[in-house]
Amino acid sequence: MPPDSMPDPLVIPTRKRRKAIRAETLRKIERHKKGLEAAIREALDYNPLAMGMIAPNPGPLKPIRELVEEYFSNQPQWRPATLENRRRILSRFVDFVGPRPLTREIIEDYARALHADTTYSPRTLWLMGTAVVTFVNWLYETNRISHNWRRGINFPEKPPQQPRGTYSEEEYRKLVEAAGDRPIGFIVKLAWHTGMAMADCCDLKWGDVDMEKGTIRRKRTKTQVEAVLTFEFGGELHRALEAQYEDTMRAFNSVEPAYPVCRWAAGNKYSIQKLFRRLVAKAGLPHRSFHSWRATLLTEMVSKNVPLNAALKISGLRSVQQLMNYASADTGLIREHLGRLRA
What we know:
Blueprint: H1 23-46, H2 64-73, H3 80-97, H4 104-116, H5 122-141, H6 169-179, H7 183-194, H8 198-202, E1 209-210, E2 215-219, E3 228-232, H9 235-252, H10 269-282, H11 292-303, H12 308-315, H13 320-326, H14 331-342
Antiparallel strand pairs: 1-2, 2-3
């Protein structure tokens, strides 16, 4: 057959051979990808006007009181106690702003005023600053203020947590001797025998105390497990409660279930806390938090082979791991008790 009449050859597509990419190269690509994403996020955070994320010119602000009311109306998930606390804090901020329009300079002045305030504890000042910062962040998120309003404002920092440990019986006697007949002495005795926290000791009512049976029933509200605690108190705490009973009778001519056991400490947690610090210094003991009384009681219960289910019920804790965080005893001893409990 002549060459001109030969058919054209068929074109058969060939598949390219795939090359394997080394795992190290893949990791390097992933790192570059994450770095690029981080750079984009940082650029957008630094310049929120990019890509039309927020409007370039936020509208004029409403009066500060209207803004605060609208802020609280958009927080339905808060508990009533938290809502009341935030309202009280932001009301001080509203009084500070007054009729002036809200600006960054006013917020900075308020932060400096918090630093100079000596009437509140460092933790209270930190909570006040945190509430204002949360409110300012809400203003930014709802496109009411520009981005630079909430950056670099120097509010009080959270103070370090007080050290927690355990008290020996000798140290307890020193504190009782140094306190004498003052109300802080009764609070120390109550904490030693029951391991209750500062707020529970100050808010104890006569309705929680049964003088005839010698028991104290207190419902914990701040622990993960709500429990009604029953403590059997002996001679020392019984005599202290009798003295408080007589003081209540002198003050009110009667003892009602709603009356506080220690009227000098009722609703006065922070003043009692300051008195306790002074008492520890007067007794010549190292400073520890008041919550150490609870750790002392739990450590003693574990050391004296108290069943773990009873220890967890008294403390209001959920797990043995949480009990280990409080009790200073050997963890092997706690695990041994746990094995008996599960046997």
